[in-house]
UniProtKB/TrEMBL annotation:
Pfam families: Response_reg. Signal peptide: none annotated. It comes from Tenuifilum thalassicum. This is Response regulator. CDD domains: REC. Residues 7-129 form the Response regulatory domain. The keyword Endoplasmic reticulum does not apply. PROSITE patterns: RESPONSE_REGULATORY. The modification 4-aspartylphosphate is found at D56. Keywords: Phosphoprotein, Two-component regulatory system. One of its GO terms (biological process) is phosphorelay signal transduction system.
């Protein structure tokens, strides 16, 4: 469990997944703010600088997560962003940030396929927060 309360923004249009992920991240000791769309998240970000953000990729648009990540990084360049998606299993398309070209295009610090175990997610969050 984290010893200090840091705030994590979770954005996903799958309400069940959003609730489950919020519960898991709160159990890790973090405060959680949620949004159900790119638009809602942009409104939240006007008044909140999260310590880390976990974004779905496909929400109201197929690239909502990429756009939101770009906007978040432009406003708060030091906030780590995780894109968590099931796009590969749903569409067969795969993305990643392993090459420099992909990192230039995808403004995220980590790209995860949904289904990650809570302990793995916790380790990745701590690594990105440098705890």
């Amino acid at each position: 469990m984290a010893t200090n309360k840091r705030t994590i923004l979770i954005v996903d249009d799958d309400i069940d997944y959003l609730f489950q992920l919020k519960f898991q991240v709160e159990k890790m000791g973090f405060d959680v703010v949620t949004a159900e769309s790119q638009h809602d998240a942009e409104q939240v970000l006007k008044n909140l600088k999260p310590d880390l953000a976990i974004l779905d990729l496909m929400m109201e648009n197929e690239d909502s997560g990429f756009i939101l990540s770009y906007k978040l990084k432009r406003r708060y360049p030091d906030v780590p962003v995780i894109i968590a998606t099931a796009v590969s299993s749903e569409t067969g398309m795969s993305f990643g940030i392993s090459s420099e070209q992909e990192r230039q295009w995808i403004k995220a610090d980590l790209y995860l396929e949904k289904g990650i175990r809570p302990d793995q997610l916790h380790r990745e969050i701590l690594k990105l927060l440098k705890q």
